[in-house]
Amino acid sequence: MIEPILYLKRHLTSFQIMILGFAGVILLGALVLMLPIATVQRVWTPFHEALFTSTSAVCVTGLVVQDTGSYWSGFGQTVILLLIQIGGLGVITAAVTFLMLSGRNISLKERSAMQDAISAPVVGGIVRLTRFILKGTFLVELVGALALLPAFCRDYGLRGVWMAIFHSVSAFCNAGFSTFPMNLMEPGIRLCYSGQAVIMALIVCGGLGFGIYKEINSRLVNRFLAKHRRLRMQWTPYFKLVMIATGILLAGGALSIFAVSAPHTSEPLGQHLWSCLFDSVTARTAGFNISDYSRYLPAASLIMCGLMVVGGSPGGTAGGMRTTTCAIAGAEILRILRGRDHVEFFHRRIDQRTVARCVITVVVSCAWIGCFTILICSLEPAMSSLDIFFENCSAFATVGVSRGITPNLSDPSKYLLIIN
Description:
The protein is an all-alpha fold. The protein has helices at residues 2-11, 14-33, 47-58, 68-71, 74-89, 91-102, 108-118, 126-156, 159-172, 187-190, 193-208, 210-225, 237-261, 269-282, 298-310, 323-338, 352-379, 385-396, 411-419, and strands at residues 344-345, 348-349.
């Protein structure tokens, strides 16, 4: 038994290790969620429903077939939250953390897998970076939970403490799971702007990527703690690209949704603009909602699909194709139209192999979503193709928002979403 495991460990690539790690955690989570102790009614959960929930949690998607708050018990919700945390940090990060806590040395192959998992530029310093990620994650989640306490405890008492912890972790990990039956459309939280602002901040923080925080931390250390300060410490092109792309997507997405939906809304314009901003933020692969997306206009739904597919930034908890990937692919199109020789960002030339990978990622991702949309449309002829396309974009980019069709899908369609 030991020899096959050692053989696989020596011959598997970092990518294969990550895939097997995710599959193993998902399967284990599904088996635990099947147990009667995981449900309020103490009944066995069908395997396909437990698998769907476990996959959605580990992949921080947020699509559900059972209401998280009323169907799953405290034990079941804790398992889901643990799966979300593992998925948000990354299976490899969680495994390296376990090795660090057990005092084991981390091999070069494990460091290489970790580098690929968190999009680190070099293998060196991976252990230090892992510690930084863990400390930063738990600190932000703790601050988020404390900030949510007043909003939740006011209406739900001591139960609000668990709700604040659950939603803080779910928001930072961009999971979109909520203990409320109507997500954040619940009457008690629908107009709680302070709570929504905290959740939006957590979503953005999780989606920026740990590399951004490492760079900010380096500047702060240089500014206030270093004995020998570097007089001129420039922001890297990566930092500038991520921050500019994030700002454009958040503001542009909110204004675009507002422009197409404002003439048809019955809400006050200020409240509707806030809803559009929240939708723009949550479309960056978070999955919370304060709007009923089944009533969204087709134009607004398609804008949401675009935001979902682009997703967050590398090395973070968000999914999608990534902001930097789409920015570089878009720059390549402009380069061809302008007849230039190479792609540049902030006077830095982008390697052509990187450009090619970004373009391939965009093309394959769009083809993948299209194929799965066609397959599910063929299985669900009675459902709207827009609803199915929206669902596929949400599943592919691990967002979790839905136009309300997830529980009504047939089992084959649910398995397709699991694969997606």
